[in-house]
TrEMBL record:
Gene3D superfamilies: Potassium Channel Kv1.1, Chain A, TolB, C-terminal domain. This is BTB domain-containing protein. Keywords: ANK repeat, Repeat. InterPro entries: 6-blade_b-propeller_TolB-like, ABTB1, SKP1/BTB/POZ_sf. GO terms for cellular component: cytoplasm; ubiquitin ligase complex. Signal peptide: none annotated.
Length: 341
């Protein structure tokens, strides 16, 4: 696997990303696009970490390196015969073109077959979601296959235009004296902790409550800076400020999601919940579950429970004991789901 730096043109080999057998067929951004890829050989789906040490860079997520088949199942219980293309879609799901079949892996690693025989026998080379909502697939022979009716992507909610007064109040948040802005340099740098004593917020929830100001003396400046950029890029629609909440560093996911919840920023909470669910690992999932429950993120907690159950053989017993001691209700719900599942 090689990496191209589009700024310098330098090409380097990603050490430790070699397959034990055969070769890679498809690559796509992973749950944490900045540091992770989803990759597929003909019979296995993996995560490939693009940063850090070479050890453990490639992790088998579903399928088997050698054994082929068409069985649905969770993680390594599933079998594939000829994976040729991957496509991430909403809800942390991954569409998989496996020979003539369209299959799907959910955020918890469970693989199901959506359609059998929908592609030609020689398979496809690329898939994409079209503006119409249809799934388009280019076959090996250059033909186009269209699949309709799949719930592959959510409809984009309409963003209301903020009143002029709201725009001016939000713009004033960045209009700080130069000596108060740490490293801003006139280009949107970090927000100092002192600037977070009183934060003016123009969000739907606060508009309904009539509150114009919120005091957040303990807010993380870095988390607030990301949320402010999100307000500019998404809620306010300013092209110069990209919604970088989707590129949040892993260590800031929790504090930013917690702050977004306090500010009633539903869109940011949903986006960060997707990142948190996708970044879960067997080693972190019970801690993530306890955190999500403590912060009232019920949808995220439900997805993390599903992930924990799907990977229960990889979860350390000690982690479960700690969860039972500190959060008995969550442990009870896990056991109930296991019993009923």
């Amino acid at each position: 696997m090689r990496r191209l730096d589009v700024r310098s043109g330098a090409v380097t080999t990603l050490e430790g990303a070699e397959l034990p057998t055969r070769w890679w067929w498809s690559l796509t951004p992973g749950p944490s696009a900045a540091v992770m890829l989803r990759a597929a050989s003909g019979r296995a789906v993996c995560t490939v970490r693009t940063e850090g040490s070479n050890g453990g860079r490639v992790e088998l997520v579903a399928g088997d390196w050698e054994e082929e088949g068409a069985a649905d199942g969770s993680g390594t219980a599933a079998r594939f015969s000829a994976i040729r293309a991957l496509l991430p879609v909403s809800g942390g799901r991954l569409l998989i073109a496996d020979g003539p079949d369209l299959r799907c892996m959910d955020a918890g690693g469970a693989v199901t077959t959506l359609l059998r025989g929908c592609f030609p026998s020689n398979g496809v080379r690329q898939m994409a979601l079209l503006p119409s909502g249809e799934l388009g697939a280019v076959t090996e022979s250059g033909d186009l296959v269209l699949i309709s009716g799949g719930d592959f992507t959510p409809s984009a909610p309409r963003q209301p235009q903020p009143p002029a007064a709201s725009t001016e109040r939000l713009l004033s948040l960045l209009a700080l004296p130069a000596e108060e802005v740490e490293g801003a340099g006139g280009s949107g740098g970090g927000i100092p902790a002192a600037a977070l004593g009183t934060v003016t917020v123009e969000c739907d929830g606060f508009a309904e409550s009539g509150a114009a100001e919120v005091t957040l003396p303990d807010a993380d400046p870095a988390a607030f800076a990301h949320l402010l950029s999100y307000m500019y890029g998404t809620a306010m629609g300013y092209p110069g400020f990209a919604p970088v909440v989707l590129e949040e560093p892993p260590e800031l996911l929790r504090p930013t999601a917690a702050l977004a919840g306090r500010l009633l920023m539903g869109g940011a909470v949903a986006a960060l919940a997707e990142r948190l669910a996708a970044a879960a690992t067997p080693a972190s999932v019970l801690s993530d579950l306890a955190w999500a429950d403590a912060h009232g993120m019920t949808d995220l907690a439900e997805r993390l429970r599903a992930f924990a159950l799907a990977h229960r053989k990889q979860v350390k017993p000690g982690d479960l004991e700690q969860l039972a001691e500190a959060f008995p209700m969550q442990a009870t719900q896990l056991l109930k789901a296991l019993w009923l599942g």
